Amino acid sequence: MIKLGEKIYGECNDPDTVLASEELTNKWLVGAGNKGIKSLNLPPNSILISNGDGTIDFLDFTDKPDTVVTINYQGQLEMISIHVLDL
Amino acid sequence: MIRTKDKIYGEVNNDRTVISKSKLKPNKYIINSNEPTMRYRIVEEANFGSKKLLYTKKNTKGEVEVKTLDYNVPNMYVGTDSEGNLKMRTVIMVDTEAPKGRELVREYKGNIIPSQPINVVSHVIEEPGWYEIEVSGAGGGGGGSVLHNQYETYNAKGSNGGAGGYYKQLIRLTKPNTVILIQPGNSGGGAEGYKISTMGALIHFDGRTNGGDGGRNTVFTNYNIKGNNGEDVQRGIQAPPYSKYKLKGGVGTHGGPDGGYSSIETGNFNAGPGGGGGGGVGPYGGAGGSCNSVALYGHEFHGAGGAGGAGGSFGIGGNGGRRDSRDRYGGYGYGYGGAGGGCGFNSTDSVNSVNEDILKGSPYSGAGGGGGGGTRVYIASLNLEILAGGGGGGAGGALSFKLGLITDGGNGITNMSDLPSIKAAKGGSGGQAVLDTTIKKGFNVDMSGKNGEPGYVRIYKCI
After folding, report:
1. CA of B44: which chain A residue's CA is closest?
2. Does the distance separating the beta carbons of A83 and B128 come in below 8 Å?
């Protein structure tokens, strides 16, 4: 709605308007359903990945020194300890 | 906005309405622009740059942030460092079995000259993988030969020194910067023999038949005991003077090879050279053989032919062969390597003619060669130690009325399983015998034994 002098102009809200489902406290956003968006809670020391359903997930590397990312026999990402050489 | 028949109603937009600062391109991440002064939530596209891995990390305020890691580097792995921070790592995968190919990385050799300072090398293998280490002790020196005037079938030629002990070991290194301590043994010295030359009618003998020096190496530096003259350290046998007690050099306490073997005859002109001492793995080299007593023209001529070669490869060399008390050249087993061979000749100086030589005692026997120095390889991180003993020194040539036995110095042994010593450092050849009837004008021959080959360590990469 816009009021100019003695006149008021109005317009319909766009039916595809997106609403925040909560206060957006985090920089990272994800869908909240029903045309809503919400903040994404981030765990520390994690690699952002997508899981089998395509959902955003995290690969945690907390307290895992000298490891590399590998794929296990089930086809899932995991961190394994190895001896490595920096060249 | 709602419009009825005659009125228009307006409503305020929901304050949770989200608007964008720009046109949002498809398949781009959007993030909260974090502008709290704005009435509406503002979103914008996230810009990470190209080929970045996204991960989270707490900042100094304890807030979790999204960081990026550049993965635009070939042949690397995503991993963590020793402190748990995410980073790109270079990883070399070590096979479970050693590849068949070999590529020589480096060879280290002892000194061809015996009794030189011990060369200790620290070799660092930076790259993990499969490697093969070849280890050989030094070859023993050859025994000196004999001038004789009887039959060529006499045991007049000095015997050859033994080959060094040989071993090879595959090692699998899973960590970088493996340190290998290498101590290649020095060559066993050939017995110093006479050089005979003629100028006109005059025959020159140059040099003397001292035993060869032993090759050096050291490990057991705490040992300071040495064998006495003619003593077999292992068996505790003390050769009495003027006896034929010892026919060959003794064996080191912890297993050095025997020196060359020679026969002994009693009676005039029968000088028995002791064998060269063994180059042992253990702390003591074998003692040199004792000399024999000889009666010459009815006179006691003690110690005319004893040739002692003692060679302790790692430890203290035994003394050289027992000599006549008048002689100053009985080999002394000093130092930490192979000890010097004993003197095989009665003369104290070079002589200038055959007649003079006979007056002082003919070279009835050659001196024994020195034992070769042992080689040591030690890898602390693998708790692996390879000790390859040096070869025993060759026995000096014997002069006897009867044909007796004379053998080369024994091959070195290792503390691991022995492999054929044909691949090891070879012992020096014994001096060639000289029949005095062959000494004619222009004659020139070297009767000394030759040095053995130095010990070595070869490092191969398996490819």
Report:
1. A27
2. yes
pLDDT of amino acid B319: 35
Q: In B110-251, at which residue ranges do the beta strands (DSSP E only) sit?
A: 121-125, 129-136, 147-148, 166-173, 178-183, 195-199, 202-206, 231-232, 237-238
Please give the pLDDT value at position B239. 36
Q: Span A26-52, mean pLDDT? A: 85
Out of B17, B58, B81, closest to residue A17 by CB: B17
- Residue type present at position B373: G
Mutation site, B13, B19, B41, B56, interface A, largest A CB count within 10 A: B56
| Higher-confidence position of B123 and B331 | B123
Q: Are B230 and B321 contacting, i.e. CB atoms less than 8 angstroms apart?
A: yes
Query: Among partner residues B14, B32, B80, which is closest to A19 by beta-carbon distance?
Result: B14
Determine whether the interchain pair A1/B57 forms a contact, defined as Cβ–Cβ distance below 8 Å: no
Q: For B16, which of A20, A62, A86 is closest by C-beta distance?
A: A20
Q: Which of A58, A12, A55, A65 lies closest to A31, judged by CA?
A: A55
Chain A positions in Cβ-Cβ contact with residue B55 (cut-off 8 Å): 45-48, 61
pTM over 0.80: no
Note whether A65 contacts B83, CB cutoff 8 Å.
Answer: yes
Residues B219, B245 contacting (CB under 8 angstroms): no
Distance in Å from the first CA to the final CA of chain B: 79
Do the Cβ atoms of A61 and B1 come within 8 Å? no
Phi/psi at B356 (nearest 5 deg)?
-65, -35
Residues B322 and B383: beta-carbon distance below 8 Å: no
Gap between the Cα atoms of A55 and B130, Å rounded = 43
Partners of A8 on chain B (C-beta within 8 Å) are: 8, 10
| Band (A19; pLDDT cuts 50, 70, 90) | confident
Measured distance CA(B387)–CA(B220) in Å, rounded:
12
Give alpha helix (H) positions in B148-287: none
Rounded mean pLDDT, B285-301? 36
Instruction: Measure A45 CA to nearest chain B CA, in Å.
Output: 5
| Strand A56-60 relative to strand B64-70, pairing | unpaired
